[in-house]
Amino acid sequence: MRDLSLSTAIKLSLFAIVAASISVFAPAYALQQVAIAIAYAIAILGLNLLMGYAGQICLAQGTLFGVGAYVTAILNATYGVSPLATLPVAAAVSAAVGLLIGLPALRLQGLQLAIVTFGIAAAFPQLLLKLGSLTGGVSGLPVDAPETPGFMTDVPELWLYLIALACAGIGALLVSRVLFGDAGRALRAQRDNPQIAQALGVNLTRTRLWAFATSSALAGLGGGVFAIVSGFISPESFLAILSINIVIGSIVGGVTSMAGAFVGGLFMVFVPSWASDINLSLGNLIYGLALILIMMVARNGITGFIEKWISMIFRRAAG
Amino acid sequence: MSLFFQLVTSGLATGAIYAALALALVLIFRATNVVNFGQGEMATFSAYCTWQLMQWGVPLWLAVLASLVGAFAIGIVTFRLIIRPMMDAPVEATVVITLGILVLFQAACMWIWGAEQLSFPSLFPGGGFGIGEVRVLASAVGTLAILLAIALAMGFIFRFTKLGLSMRAAAFDRTRSVLVGVDVERMLMLGWGFASVIGALAAILIAPRLFLSPTMMTPILFYALAAATLGGWDSPLGAIVGGLAVGVTESLGASYLPFVGADMRIAVPIALTLIILLVKPVGLFGSYKVTKL
Amino acid sequence: MTLLDIRDLSVFYGKTQALFDCSFSVGEGEFVALLGSNGAGKTTLLRAVSGLLPFKGSVFYAGKALDKISAQTRLALGVAHIPQGRGTFTEFTVEENLSLGATIVASRSQVREDKERWYETFPRLRERRNQLAGNLSGGEQQMLAVARALMSRPKLLMCDEPSLGLAPSITQEILAIFKSLNKENGMTLLVVEQNVDITLQYADRAFVIEAGQIVASGTASDLIGNEDIKKSYLGVAG
Ligand SMILES: Nc1ncnc2c1ncn2[C@@H]1O[C@H](COP(=O)(O)OP(=O)(O)OP(=O)(O)O)[C@@H](O)[C@H]1O
Ligand SMILES: [Mg+2]
User: What percentage of chain C has pLDDT greater than the value 70?
Assistant: First the structure.
């Protein structure tokens, strides 16, 4: 137990150092990119709960992310609510939508859920267009920049970055409360063996719905942050491929790792953009190849791969 | 009433394309237990190859034939390089790998041919004929005829040839097949090859209507997934029936259900999939072996 | 002449070792039984010989080292393996099962001829030729498994626990068929069994395997009266 908290402490301080050095050294534009990566990471944190612990593949996380983004944008653009105040609402609405998807999903497993949610992801942009009077249709909706505190007005991007980071912190806290509490034990038990879990008195229905709601709330929160950081959203940003990319980010980072969520978010934003720096039209091709190669070399994601190497090196050093 | 028959006819023609892609998915699932989310994009790539050959002056039918041969090779190479090393990976990993195939082929099309929509010639003459008040397009008849031909050819191969028997055996149980001397790996490879050819045909058939673009098949893939789920993931016959059923319901739903309409027609297969999964998860023709899809 | 020669055979499942330096040989035209209790390593040994598992040590078949030869080629050389639990293709018809048994046979007339021949031997299979194998009784499935293996015209037929789940009389029937294949066709047999007394009535020689090692061997008539071996290795109450 002491080992665990020690390594958590090490990880946290490492994380803090990385986060701080990004804020100091990264140029403004990159800061905004990192903030977007963090928005995705928040959604991935949720998806990890679902995939890594509840064993369910959801290909509609991008849709729930989009729901959150649109709640923020609509509340802000149409009703003039201040952007930051919309975030809890975004999370709550997404959680509710997630529950709606989650109810039938209680009886679906693995690939079945993947197929249904893939359909939902494919339908979402159409729905946004159909509800044009609410969503602004193809032309999308603008989102106000949150008021930047006086001493930071030179670099509003830094403020956006800090907001994203704070939301990610809240998300991580939420996930760790779920994981290390009773719900987490129940989740792991039901993933490893539903029958035994049931026999042990785990309420499967409640646990799975709980996982879905939490995961969706995080997607909504991430989406809200995305809308604020981007300053503008349209259906283009929430095509089916977004959900696919979020799953990819999640797996690439490692489904059972919180740090992995951030690796995954960064992967989603930066690998395609680096790849297109190498060659503009080749960008996605390199992204796809990188993805497949990573999966073949490191099935447990990048984080799992690194952890394996570190523990191997430690073992060598020890004996 | 004639509207109804009109909608059914056009639904059947679209359904034939869903059926073809679903058939490809089912072939691969039976053989390797993988749901290939990249099937549509692999097919799009082949349709682009046809287009390219025609740009170079190759006549349509020859271009199609050559692309189908190419599609066969693409299926085999994808299996050897990407799927075979991952065959005993957990299901999340195989889902991501096939999503990777989707991204890869979409990107390849984008890189080589760009993102703009290209017009693609139909394999069939324009126009059509009337039966009573119902107008039947030649392309609809042609598409259905091709589906029928695929179905008969597959049925023949699987029922009556040694190759088909070996392929079915390899899909049924790998160890037992090895013991009777079936070259299991070769059979799985061929399965991927055939599936890729059938998928490519689907893309070539639908390209004239949707225009050729790198993302052309992404929504079609969902219709095919719905069709395979409806029919049962281990049943080729189910894939065909499921595809036609999805096509017809979609066409009827888009016209008769005002809240669905033409722009939300994708809601129809979503609802169908959900219903079948909740009511009869193995699908109409599936066996209970695959409840845990 | 030795047909199958196994020397210092070791097999691992990941890090756990299931066979430890087993050595024995089977002469051409012999009927040999491999006896051992549950978990002794009998199935593992057959799987190594037929090519389903990699092994350390050496296995020679008709003078050829098998380690680098694929399962398919081993079958073509004449090594057939009827797995434990019969390994029938339950969702295929009886006829299709026989056709699958002849996967490596190129000549269609040979396939037709052999089917005819084994339908003669197993008339029950002929009656059910168009039924799914999964709907046959246990005994019929075992006969199908034997007939299917014979379709490849093996020289060495290895069968893993034919008696599993069958009534003694049916076990006898199957062992009698093995015996006649052995006597009349000169086929070499290696039969894995736990059912010691019945098996030793038919086999020429037997090896006893325990915890992954060959612990005893002898002619059937020697072993049949040897209560010590039966008691200590085969779990037969004295
Ligand atoms: N796939 C496997 N993975 C790991 N260990 C295995 C595997 N198969 C068998 N073993 C182990 O190897 C040993 C030998 O098993 P094997 O199946 O060869 O025994 P057997 O003599 O055929 O037993 P039985 O009479 O019950 O069929 C056992 O300890 C078993 O637990
Ligand atoms: Mg055994």
Answer: 97
Q: If we measure between CA atoms, which residue out of A75, A52, A64, A131 comes closest to residue A100?
A: A64
Residue B186 to residue B121: CA distance in whole angstroms: 35
- Torsion on CA atoms A109, A111, A114, A116, rounded to nearest 10: -80
Q: Does C148 touch chain B (CB under 8 A)?
A: yes
Q: pLDDT tens-digit profile of A260-316?
A: 888 889 888 888 777 777 766 677 787 788 778 877 777 666 667 777 777 777 677
Is C31 strand, coil or helix? strand
Q: Would you say residue B232 lies in a domain? A: no
Q: Is residue C56 part of a domain?
A: yes
Helix or strand holding residue C205 (H, E): strand C205-210
Residue C133 domain-assigned (yes or no): no
What six digits make up the tokens of B259?
A: 């809240």
DSSP string across A120-132: HHHHHHHHHHHTH
The amino acid at B150: I
Give the domain range for residue A162.
28-239
Q: Which has more confidence, B88 or A264?
A: A264
| Domain presence at residue B76 | yes
CATH number, domain with residue C219: 3.40.50.300
Alpha helices in B56-90 (DSSP H): 60-78
Cβ–Cβ < 8 Å for A217, A95: yes
pLDDT score of B292 more than 50: no
Asked if residue A125 is part of any domain, the answer here is yes
* Model confidence pLDDT, tens digit, residues C10-53: 999 989 999 999 999 999 999 999 999 999 999 999 999 999 99
- Say if CB A263 and CB A254 are below 8 A apart: yes
Q: Are B21 and B220 in contact (CB under 8 A)?
A: yes
- pTM of the predicted structure, to 2 decimals: 0.85
Chain C residues lying within 8 Å of B175, measured CB to CB: 52, 83, 87
B135-165 residues labelled b (16+ CB within 10 A) or e (exposed): bbbebbbbbbebbeebbeebeebbeeebebb
Phi-psi region of B257 (alpha: psi -120 to 50; beta: other; left: phi over 0): beta
Tell whether A289 is covered by a domain.
no
The amino acid present at A119, given as its one-letter code, is G
Domain count, chain A: 1
Please answer whether residues C236 and C225 qualify as being in contact, where contact means their C-beta atoms are separated by less than 8 angstroms. no
Q: Where do we find the tokens 């040897």?
A: C226
Are B166 and C91 a contacting pair at CB < 8 A?
no
Closest-CA residue of chain C to B180: C101
* Contact between residue B37 and residue B221 where contact means Cβ atoms under 8 Å apart: yes
Q: Which of B165, B166, B176 shows the shortest C-beta gap to C87?
A: B176
Distance C167 CA to ligand 2 centre (A): 18
Which SS3 state, helix, strand or coil, does residue C1 take?
Answer: coil
ipTM of this predicted structure: 0.90
Number of domains in chain C: 1
CA distance C18 to C40: 8
Calculate the CA dihedral of residues C206, C210, C212, C216 and round it to 10 degrees. Answer: -40
Report whether residue C169 contacts ligand 1, using a CB cutoff of 6 Å. no
Q: Where residue C238 falls among pLDDT bands split at 50, 70, 90?
A: very low
Domain of residue C197: give its range. 2-90+154-233
**Beta bridge pairs of residue A91:** none
Distance from the alpha carbon of residue C142 to the mean position of ligand 2, in angstroms: 15
Q: Which residues on A lie below 8 Å from B104 (Cβ)?
A: 285, 288-289, 291-292
The per-residue pLDDT for A222 is: 96
Largest separation between any pair of C-alpha atoms in chain A: 67
A1: confidence class by pLDDT, cuts 50, 70, 90: very low
Cα A60 to Cα A245: distance, rounded to the nearest angstrom: 11
Residue C9 located in a structural domain: yes
Is residue B66 in some structural domain? yes
Angle at A200 between CA A198 and CA A205, to 5 degrees: 35
Structure tokens at A54: 């509840």
